[in-house]
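Protocol step 4 of 5: obtain the predicted structure for the target chain.
Materials: sequence only (see below). No template structures provided, no constraints applied. The aim of this step is simply to have a reference model before the mutagenesis design in step 5. Sequence pasted as it appears in the construct record:
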Amino acid sequence: MREVLSINLGNFGSTGNIMRGISKIAEDNGFICWQAYAPDKNNGPKAERDIIISSYNIRRVNELYSRFTGMRGFSSYFSTLAFLKKVDRIKPDIIHLHNLHCNYIHVGLLFDYIKKHHIKVIWTLHDCWAFTGRCPHFQISGCDRWKTGCYDCPYPKNEYPSVFWDRTDVLWKQKK
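Step 4 output (structure tokens):
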């Protein structure tokens, strides 16, 4: 049987409902589905094959680290290593990515793991964070720098995801 691992920032709200809905359809069609997500007070009940990545307190620490350094999506190093050990036991054929922001997973470690293990990826883009330096949608700022390389971001530093230092040039290169 083929196994699918979905990764999202939670199991609630629009992206959580989409993740769970796709998993249900996949299971109805013979797949074994796992869902991994961040700890959040808004999460619904944990299902049998759900994996909580990190802990709520560690996620808060990673939030502060990301805000101070500007390195959104590249904190949670040790939590991600622990999560990837669980992924080793699952051995998914497919990883379905949803929202990877919100400081619960280290994107670099995750993608290195995916490449090393030659895992097929489906990525549902619920916003533009995956290919911009930081902003959730480039139209908010009217900025097209994401096409050639983010830098000196016009998106307000105090807006989600907030930062003290503009590291969009580094983040854009890392994501690319």
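Step 4 remarks: The longest strand covers residues 3-8. The chain has six helices and five strands.
Proceed to step 5.
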